[in-house]
Amino acid sequence: MQNRIDARQVAPELMEAMLSLEQRVAEAGLEPGLRHLVKIRASQINGCAYCVHMHTREARKDGESEERLYLLSAWRESPLYSERERAALAWTEAVTKIAETGAPDADYEALRMHFTEKEAAALTFLISTINAWNRLAIAFRTIHPMKLKAA
Hints:
By secondary structure, this protein is mostly helical. It is 69% helix and 0% strand.
């Protein structure tokens, strides 16, 4: 696998805009642990190795447990996630797969039980932003850092 485009080099003004959006979303008031789970789950769905690698490392650094990270792809079958996290993860899946789901009213209503309107907007921007990052990383074949074992 080879990197196709180094967007930071060829389109720094566009990368700067994306990074600015990322910063604004991070400052929108959602708790860091929830942001990590949403970013990882969307990245899992989209198959973005670069983002899964980055965000699982960040989550661990911020104190997220290995067990919750391992079970994230099966969160519906695990009691390890709070009702607020479950609502956010369901909304993450609905918005990430929007062509399939249409963002169902039931998922939105569950979201609104645990999030204020401002938080719901911030969460939707978060989901949209990580989906954009996933698409850029996959399209440009951005390769995650690797530690190779000696043979």
